[in-house]
C-alpha cells in the first residue's frame, strides 16, 4: 500500500536542492525550507521502505514509520531511530554514511531493525 504523501514532490525536491546548496556553502537555509526538506526525505524513506516496524524521528520536523516487520501499536516502539535535521538530510542525500553518522553521537538507533543503511541514500545531491 502506497503512503499518503503530504508534500508535493516538486516542492519537496526543490527544498532538498535548496538545502543541498546551502550545505555546500556552509550556510543555513530558512527554517521552512529545512522543515520541508526533512519531511520530504522522510516521505521518500517511507515510500521506498514501506512498513511499520521502525520509527524514524527528526525532531521537531517530522516522524515516519518504515521497514517491513512487526507493527507496534502502543507505547514506545521497539525500533527507533532519532537524529537532528541536518544529519538526516546528510544521510538522505549521501553526504554522510550510516557508519559516519553513528560516530557523530547524534544518531540514536535502538532495536534489531533500526539500521537504515540499506535504504540510504534516498536522493543523491553532490
Automatic annotation (TrEMBL):
<dbReference type="InterPro" id="IPR041629">
    <property type="entry name" value="SCP_3"/>
</dbReference>
<feature type="domain" description="Bacterial SCP orthologue">
    <location>
        <begin position="31"/>
        <end position="122"/>
    </location>
</feature>
<dbReference type="Pfam" id="PF17844">
    <property type="entry name" value="SCP_3"/>
</dbReference>
<protein>
    <recommendedName>
        <fullName>Bacterial SCP orthologue domain-containing protein</fullName>
    </recommendedName>
</protein>
